[in-house]
Design a protein that fits this description.
The chain has about 625 residues and is of the alpha/beta class. The protein contains 20 helices and 14 strands.
């Protein structure tokens, strides 16, 4: 442990509230406070031991890189658990994330796949299985980041709260992330009236992007179909009046041969149009499935059935080549008409955000007949929540089966604000979706009642709230009031806290009270919303602080949180003498005040601890003054 005296913590004074410059006004017992190990070493056993020597009870084995986690010997994990048991300490684990696939399934290169998602599911389960060795009593908090590699949509303060500056969207078909900027647009009518641009609602921009995307998918088929129809019209003028027998009889006639060639050429264009529509139809069905839109899937199936019915005369029950023996003009016209109807129906269904069923008369349409079109583009938040919740719910389910009664608490952490799923609202929705899916798995696969399954899910999955990560909102112009709104939103779900402070939205952590984060207000909001918050661990992530100052932050954390000195105390309630009132006392040698150290080391280095170290004038052996201590006269 380093020495507190080498870091200047501010001047304690009786004029200061509670005699401290960093006391937060909310008292937390030392038993609820904790610290993290260094993220840069696999020797976590030594790190844990060093923290225990400082009297720290709650220790978070903190890993950022999986390659470091993989270097920790299995025996060390068990030994940490033994140390914790001997010292009555509590261990938590921060799961690695920096060199891993995002929990949603995105790789660091930006591509998404279901296999990626299943892979990270297996990796997180591996972390759980190894981490279980750290705590033999079970139910240990394991911190997982809600996202790691994907950017979030950019939010800025608006007139009526936060508004979207730039929406990051995921394209299901092309497997790409794309930004949609909320910029002013100059429309003819609006510019003529006002001379100004106009911002559309970002959701309208998203709906327009989807419509335009599907419209562009259908256009190639429309163009090919139109070219085929022009050629077919020419063929009809040439072959008019000739039946099938006439065509055979006159096939050597150059004019008839040219007409037959034009029919074949028209059919080539129709086949290309059909192929293009088939590809678009496949993509629409895939997107409808990804959207979970069963009504749209049913409607697309009905469209395909209609097309088969309308081409049955020339193709039978299949979707292959035309039957032989049918007049080429008849077959081409049937194909053309069926393609026209198919394009109209597909355009109606896939290019409109909302549409009535294609086979319903206008006067008979009900609310149930209104169907949402395929959303090829969805916000990254919507996509990430859907897939990340599947990952976390499956890890929770497998943990429940693997460690019955001792499964860890999955405490999902908000990443720095600006990343995906970093706000209180987004994290809350992710936790709710994860709990719901986990409970459904318990209900369906374990035969558990839905009520019991829901209670287990609520105990198992919650939030880790990092006070500094949400503090980055100030960089976007948000106020402390806005930050507290996000904090209050997540408050009922909090099971673990990273109690950090910082300055100006930085993510470089300093001791609580040395920055500008609203520590007191945050803890009060959590305590009000969560009846078990008094037992929740508050962990200071002091790695950067220790690296800069080469000293332990623990005495300062105790001072900042007003921890009782002699009793455990009740959270939020003053009780006995607290560490914030002890600043500057005893051996905390604050160089700018007081009388200095009592019995400093120099005294013993110079004179020792026995009589022989005294000056000769006092009967010792150390050289001293030659004269009397009073007159300077030599002593006899």
């Amino acid at each position: 442990m380093g020495n507190y005296e080498y870091f200047y913590p501010g001047t304690p004074s009786i004029l200061e509230s509670e005699y401290s410059t960093i006391f937060q006004g909310y008292k937390v017992p030392a038993a609820n406070l904790g610290a993290t190990t260094s993220i840069n070493t696999a020797n976590q056993l030594k790190q844990v031991g060093d923290l225990m020597k400082q009297g720290i009870r709650n220790i978070e084995v903190s890993l950022v890189h999986k390659k470091v986690f993989d270097q920790i010997p299995a025996g060390h994990m068990k030994e940490i658990a033994n140390l914790a048991k001997l010292n009555k300490a509590e261990i938590s684990l921060h799961a690695p994330f920096d060199d891993m696939t995002d929990p949603s399934g995105f790789s660091k290169q930006g591509g998404w796949s279901e296999e990626n998602r299943k892979q990270v599911e297996r990796e997180l389960m591996y972390v759980v299985e190894r981490g279980q060795a750290l705590n033999t009593s079970g139910n240990m908090p394991i911190v997982f980041h809600s996202s790691a590699v994907i950017p979030g949509s950019s939010m800025v303060p608006g007139k009526d709260g936060a508004e979207t500056e730039q929406l990051i969207v995921y394209n299901y078909v092309d497997n790409q992330l794309t930004p949609i900027k909320n910029e002013e647009k100059y429309y003819l009518s609006n510019y003529a009236k006002t001379g100004k641009g106009k911002k559309d609602d970002i959701q309208k921009e998203l709906a327009d992007t989807n419509s335009t995307y599907w419209d562009n998918k259908i256009k190639p088929a429309i163009f090919r179909k139109a070219e085929g129809e022009k050629i077919l019209e020419d063929a009809q003028l040439i072959l008019a009046g000739l039946d099938s027998e006439g065509l055979v009889a006159n096939q050597k006639d150059p004019r008839v041969a040219a007409g037959i060639h034009k029919v074949r050429l028209a059919n080539e264009y129709f086949r290309e149009a059909h192929k293009s529509l088939n590809s678009t139809f496949h993509q629409a069905v895939e997107v409808a499935k990804a959207n979970g839109n069963q009504k749209l899937q049913d409607e697309l199936r009905n469209i395909s059935k209609k097309f088969l019915e309308e081409t049955k005369e020339i193709r039978g029950d299949g979707d292959g080549e035309q039957k032989k023996g049918i007049h080429p003009l008849v077959a081409a016209n049937i194909e053309s008409g069926a393609l026209n109807k198919l394009m109209q129906r597909m355009e109606h269904v896939i290019t409109n955000p909302l549409h009535p069923r294609f086979d319903k008369e206008e006067d008979s349409i009900t609310e149930n007949d209104i169907i949402e079109g395929p959303k090829a583009f969805v916000s990254i938040e919507e996509f990430a929540k859907k897939n990340t919740s599947e990952t976390f719910s499956e890890v929770a389910f497998q943990s429940y089966k693997r460690f019955p009664g001792k499964a860890p608490v999955m405490a999902i952490e908000n990443p720095p604000y600006g990343g995906a799923l970093s706000s209180g609202k987004e994290l809350k929705e992710l936790i709710e979706m994860s709990r719901q899916k986990f409970a459904q798995k318990l209900f369906e696969k374990e035969g558990m009642s839905l009520d019991q399954a829901t209670k287990i899910a609520e105990r198992t999955i919650g939030a880790t709230w990092d006070t500094v990560h949400i503090g980055k909102m100030v960089e976007k112009g948000f106020t402390k009031k806005d930050i507290m709104k996000e904090t209050e939103t997540i408050a009922p779900f909090v099971k673990h806290v990273h109690l950090n402070d910082s300055l100006g939205g930085s993510t470089d952590d300093v001791v609580p009270g040395m920055g500008d984060i609203q520590i007191k207000e945050t803890l009060e909001a959590f305590n009000k919303a969560n009846k078990d918050f008094g037992k929740t661990r508050k962990i200071f992530e002091g790695g950067a602080f220790v690296a800069q100052w080469q000293t332990s932050p623990q005495p300062m954390v105790l001072e900042a949180m007003g921890s009782p000195i002699y009793v455990n105390g009740t959270e939020g309630v003053p009780q006995g003498l607290n560490w914030n009132r002890a600043a500057g006392a005893a051996n905390q040698n604050i160089y700018y005040s007081g009388m200095g150290d009592t019995l400093p080391d120099y005294n013993f280095q110079s004179f020792g601890a026995g009589f022989t170290g005294l000056p000769t004038s006092l009967g010792g052996q150390m050289g001293g003054a030659r004269g009397s201590r009073f007159s300077g006269t030599p002593m006899a």
